[in-house]
Specification:
Helices cover about 30% and strands about 25% of the residues. The protein contains nine helices and 15 strands. The strands form three sheets. It has an eight-stranded mixed β-sheet. Strands 1-7-12-9-10 form a five-stranded antiparallel β-sheet. The protein binds gibberellin A4 (GA4). GO terms for molecular function: gibberellin 2-beta-dioxygenase activity; metal ion binding.
Length: about 325
């Protein structure tokens, strides 16, 4: 069903940048998780793009649509109601400001730090009228997506031929795993498109600091990724599949073999874009270092040693577009 969402006005945030949309890139790797070649294709996709799409992922579409409709309901509330659920740090509603260092975008969102206790806590403060409904939609969705994330990470370990199978997945399975979840709403910007043929930048270019990010969106385009040669391409939307990003931490754990993909989102000219992303991270105390089993004879780590806590602190002090791993390069 078409849902009309309230639109914030342009004038308050003249700093939001614009950009022309590009053609749909046909070369995004599509990986069928039910096929025996999945592990090999996953490794290849992480090396070449740091980005891929998965199908036959086992996440019930019912969970997806329930959460999407809860999200749409939330974003349709009057602005003053939504603002009362802010600020976004450590969890809650955010509008146009991203992080706390001056980044802005054509976006509103809900951010959650997820471990079993905090989901209910944040639901209580965000969904005052009906926290149970919202909370169960978030919980069902996240537990199904987490399972799929474990499967993908285990297939990656198999594809890399390293033991144990759970070298990556155990970090997300840990009770202390520092993971995030966000619901984004990018209102359309038809006026600007008509005036200039440009789109507003919804979420500026960046890489994700965590291990892995699992994204799902409705059928509105907007996501773009940067290829190895630095060019930007648009990802064709697909509301029944999931898109997966390699994060900075996985790049380090593979000593640069997997690429943490730079990506950004342009607001769609005509449609509201609603996306939901799970960011799987390790426990705060975890040392993020290349896995010994992946190192060739005499190979050295490309990165200075750090814990996830240290990396996260630096990340949260940085601007969105910064090359955060650059600060941790050894040479
Ligand atoms: C990018 C990935 C996740 O959305 C996020 C973002 C976080 C935020 O929105 O608060 C950050 C950004 C993200 C990286 C640099 C810092 C922190 C905004 C920002 C400018 C939740 C995350 O973990 O890092």
């Amino acid at each position: 069903a078409m849902v009309l969402l309230s639109k914030p006005s342009f004038d308050q945030f003249p700093l939001i940048k614009t950009c022309k949309s590009t053609f749909f890139f046909p070369g995004i790797p599509v990986i069928d998780l039910s096929k025996p070649d999945a592990k090999t294709l996953l490794v290849k996709a992480c090396e070449e793009f740091g980005f891929f799409k998965v199908i036959n992922h086992g996440v019930p579409m019912d969970f997806v649509s329930r959460l999407e409709s809860e999200a749409v309901k939330f974003f349709s509330l009057p602005q003053s109601e939504k603002e009362r659920r802010g600020p976004p740090d450590p969890f809650g509603y955010g509008n146009r400001r991203i992080g706390s260092n001056g980044d802005v975008g054509w976006i509103e969102y809900l951010l959650f730090n997820i471990n079993p206790e905090t989901i209910y806590q944040s639901s209580l403060s965000i969904f005052r009228e009906n926290p149970e409904m919202f909370c169960s939609a978030v919980n069902d969705y996240i537990s199904a997506v987490r399972k799929m994330a474990f499967q993908v990470l285990e297939l990656l370990a198999e594809g890399l031929m390293i033991q144990p199978r759970n070298v990556f997945s155990r970090l997300l399975m840990d009770d202390k795993s520092d993971s995030f979840f966000r619901l984004n709403h990018y209102p359309p910007c038809p006026e600007l498109q008509a005036l200039s043929g440009q789109n507003l930048i919804g979420f500026g270019e960046h890489t994700d600091p965590h291990i892995i990010s699992i994204l799902r969106s409705n059928n509105a385009s907007g996501l773009q990724i940067s290829l190895k040669d630095g060019s930007w391409v648009s990802v064709p939307p697909d509301q029944t599949s999931f898109f997966i990003n390699v994060g900075d931490s996985l790049q380090v754990m593979t000593n640069g073999r997997f690429k943490s993909v730079r990506h950004r989102v342009l607001a769609n000219s005509f449609k509201s874009r609603v996306s939901m992303i799970y960011f799987g991270g390790p426990p705060l105390s975890e040392r993020i270092v290349p896995l010994a089993a992946l190192m060739e004879e005499g190979e050295e780590s490309l990165y200075k040693e750090f814990t996830w806590c240290e990396y996260k602190k630096t990340a949260y002090k940085s601007r969105l577009a910064e090359n955060r791993l650059g600060h941790f390069l050894r040479k």
